[in-house]
Amino acid sequence: MTYIRHIEHETIVHRCFRCGYCKYPSDYSDFNCPSYKAFGWDTFAPGGRMWLTRAWLAGEIETSARFAEIMFSCVACDNCKNQCVFPKFKDFLPDIFQETRAELVGEGRIPPGVRDYFKAIAVNGNPYKLPQNERGTWAAGTGLKPYNNHKYLFYAGCVGSYDEVGQRMAKSVGKMLVDTGLSVGILGSEETCDGNDVRVLGEMGLFTQLAQANVDAFKAKGVKEIITLDPHALNTFKKDYPGLGGIFQVRHYSEVLAELIQKKKIKLKAYPVKITYHDPCYLGRHQNIYQAPREILKAIPKAELVEMHRHGPNAFCCGGGGGNFFTDILGTAESSASRVRVREAAETGANILAVACPNCAKMLSDAVKMEHLEDCMEVLNLAEILERARK
Amino acid sequence: MRDIRKSLVDIVGERGVSDAQEELWFYSRDPGVLAPHRPDYVVAPKTTEEVQKIVRLANREKIPVVPMGNGMSLAGLVIPLKGGIVMDMKRMNKILEVNSMARYVVVEGGTSQGALKAYLQEHHPTLRHSIPDAPPATTIAANVSLHGQGRLTNQYGFNSDMVTGLEVVLPTGKICLVGSPSIGPYWISKGPTLPDLSGLFLGWLGCTGIITKVGLKLYPNKKIRDAELFVTDRVDLIPHILYKLTHLEMLEDINVWFQPKPLMFLGNFHITIFFTGDTEEEIEFKRKMIWDALQEYMDSKDGGFMAIQYMKSVLLEMPGRNIADFADVPKGGGFEYSGPIAPIEHFPQYAAKLVELAAKYNVLYASAARLISGGHCMMFSISFAFNRNDPAMMERVEKALDEAMAFALDMGGIPWKPNFKEQKMTLEKMEPNARNLLLMIKKNLDPQGIMNPGNWEVNS
To answer: I need a surface site. Which of A198, A213, A267, B439 has the fewest CB within 10 A?
Structure first.
């Protein structure tokens, strides 16, 4: 069957010069595009994707498993958008890649891992294929109650609800929110996947269903303010849900904890430790939140915050974005993003690698094991670190 | 023929070889206007030994090999004109040694300009290399193999003049050290006082071997960099102004640029003068010398210095990120330029020719000339932007560039990074004995004719 391909931004695809600024951090010290770093072909860099997309739209290359791999190995970290030197179209690079993936979804030519991810969410409501009624079990012992006119809804997301490392993060954050006396509840088994990565991977129909279900559920419960565990959820709640009628005040938990510390609702004692912080892409580059996590860590007496060479807007992704957390297209080779990142963290001499995203927590925890760094570095989320330093 | 793909996989592993349509399509072209040509394989070695094995295989099977850095010459120098293997060198990107006292670095050939800059900034902040204005992904070996230039070219010559030694895989697969590293551990000289064998590889665009390691001179990285921008609308004065500036013998870099867009630049010639110092006193002294040197043109109302505080950070950036902007002026993602090396006295004629060609072919122009070796010559860029979605415009740019090079050769200029057509034009103009010498070298080094064939092809 011949497909007529069309993407919304196809009129600007040809404007990429393929100069390659997009694959670097601002100081050019290393490649900052996770898929280029992992695969090492120019085709896997943003410029390669732009040129191949143009060729594909023009029918110069066919849809293939390789083409799909190239498109779906993009982790949507937004580094390319930040570094591209063409101000008139740089902001649309991630959109172009997402639209291309959406076309591939439409053609039904997607990597098996992506297909399985969509299928699991469509059937089970989560990518882990676990029962919906187990979605809130992580909250046992935290003091969190089902949402019932609380001031805040604490949204855990799929990783926080089902993954072992994610659950640890959800528990520690949830407990800390409760302990500070915040009026906060959860949806538990009524929670639905936020759909951020479904959207990024191009399954727009499924995303719309998920998002609309969430919007309707939040509204039905009277939710006004949301605290997210996962920056991915934060991103889609803020960027996409308003277009579906879901206008809520949404904050990431790091912003809330930073505020609680400032208001002295969380009191801290000396915790002499060296910490480096990994900026999650969806908190940093996507939402421009760089300071709140650092304010938390800097508030701990005697703790020393040391930055990795690439940090803030130049941070190297853990490789878990754009659905790769589930689809694992980048793989686990030495050049995979998570392993590169923990080696960079280890170079700082830090004992703790602080994370603020459950996806990053899992990716980097696994990478620490693969790099045999367990004896010198722990991966801990911000709330776990605060718990250790709490009076 | 043996199973070439399997042989390549045996050498570099599955992740180092591709014959997928995606890589073959992408590596068949560069961002310039020349037509693409598909390779049969793309390989990405990680070591000199892997390069050696690939070249031995290619030599045995008579398969063309095209070494590639980032492919940003814009002149189609890595388009595999006769198919074969494109060798992406960017995985060979280790910085092997910095001798800070002798001020040189040894890098693998695929090391990017950006990575070297960042490394020196972090580990050797008092040292720098001559950074080209090409994007940071461009590689050290590719830059010297096409006689690239950079921010220190006015002071120290072509970037290839700054080479202090090479490791090369010859077309037969032998690994050869060139210069001082061939007889000792130090990478301090590419040739002198020995016969300078580096000339067998520098400027040959990968036609005589694959550069796998480069020794490169480093220079003092002064604490302060500054710039002045002198503007005149009298093109006839440019050579004289440049002569006065180079007489100062204290300037980092001198560029002359003119362009019709944005309109505020139309009709003027802008001379950006870069200078450095370790103290404010040194900077102010140099600034005074620059102003004094050009005072007569201000007195005669023929020119003056622009207030540049608002653009200084852009001017001083290395590499200049704004340079790529030119590609998007016609909203089309491309530009290409000829860059003949010419005496500075010819600046007015080249400038007039550029404007004439732009009008004749209805294309957008820009030019930025860079002084080389204190003014012995300049690289005069004849740049035309194009819209990649407009084949007719690309064709006009190609014709304009062909005509520009014919003009440059008639003016006694020599081409910089010439495309295969410009190489032919150059060889036709070359004195026959010199051409035969090139033929002799090429035939002896590359008897099977496998290295980047279609380039520097010399007919006896």
So the answer is: A267
Task: Give B354→chain A minimum CA distance, Å.
Answer: 23
Whether residue B445 is contained in a domain is answered as no
Query: Would residue A120 count as lying in a domain?
Result: no
Which helix (H) or strand (E) is B347 found in, with range? helix B347-361
pTM score, two decimals? Answer: 0.96
Q: Are A54 and A151 found together in one domain?
A: no
Do you find a cis peptide bond into B262, omega within 30 degrees of 0? yes
CA A139 vs. chain centroid, Å, equals 22
Domain residues for B81?
Answer: 4-88
Q: What is the pLDDT along chain B (460 residues), one digit of tens a residue?
A: 459 999 999 999 999 999 999 999 999 999 999 999 999 999 999 999 999 999 999 999 999 999 999 999 999 999 999 999 999 999 999 999 999 999 999 999 999 999 999 999 999 999 999 999 999 999 999 999 999 999 999 999 999 999 999 999 999 999 999 999 999 999 999 999 999 999 999 999 999 999 999 999 999 999 999 999 999 999 999 999 999 999 999 999 999 999 999 899 999 999 999 999 999 999 999 999 999 999 999 999 999 999 999 999 999 999 999 888 888 989 998 999 999 999 999 999 999 999 999 999 999 999 999 999 999 999 999 999 999 999 999 999 999 999 999 999 999 999 999 999 999 999 999 999 999 999 999 999 999 999 999 999 876 4
Question: What region, left, alpha or beta, does residue B456 occupy, with left being phi > 0 and alpha being psi -120 to 50 degrees?
Answer: left
| β-pair partners for B304 | B231
Q: Which of A11, A22, A35, A43 is the best substitution to test chain B (most B C-beta atoms within 10 A)?
A: A43
State the CATH number of the domain containing residue B45: 3.30.43.10
Query: B17, B19, B22: best mutation site toward chain A, by most A Cβ within 10 Å?
Result: B22
ipTM of the complex: 0.96
Q: Are residues B237 and B369 in the same domain?
A: yes
Q: Are A21 and B324 in contact (CB < 8 Å)?
A: yes
CATH of the domain at B175: 3.30.465.10
Question: Å from B226 to nearest chain A CA?
Answer: 20
Query: What is the chain A residue with the closest CA to B122?
Result: A29
Quickly tell me which residue has 């989560």 as its tokens.
Answer: A126
Structure tokens at B89: 């060198």
Q: Give yes or no: residues B162 and B84 share one domain.
A: no
Domain match, B74 and B108 both = no
Inter-chain residue contact A61 with B327, CB threshold 8 Å: no
Same-domain status, B259 and B403? yes
Does the residue A10 lie in any domain? no
CB-CB neighbors (< 8 A) of B15 in chain A: 39-40, 333
Tally the domains of chain A: 3
B126: alpha, beta or left, given left = phi > 0 and alpha = psi -120 to 50? alpha
Q: To probe the interface with B, which of A10, A23, A30, A42 has the most B CB atoms within 10 Å?
A: A42
Closest residue on chain B to A53 (Cα): B22
Q: Are A208 and A241 in contact, with CB atoms under 8 Å apart?
A: no
CA–CA dist B370, B341 (Å, integer)? 10
